[in-house]
Amino acid sequence: MKILSVNIGQTRPYPWRNGTESAILKSPVEGNGVAVTTLGLEGDEQADLRVHGGEDKAVLCIPQSNYALFEIHQGFGFLGENLTLSDVDETQIQLGDQLQVGSAVLEVTQPRSPCWKLNEITQDSQFLKRYADSGRVGFYCRVLQPGTLERNEQVSLLHPEVDNEHPAISIQSLFLAKHRVQSRNAQSGDLELLALAVQHPALSSAWRQELTKLLENQQP
Question: Which residues pair with 134 in a beta bridge?
Answer without folding.
Answer: none
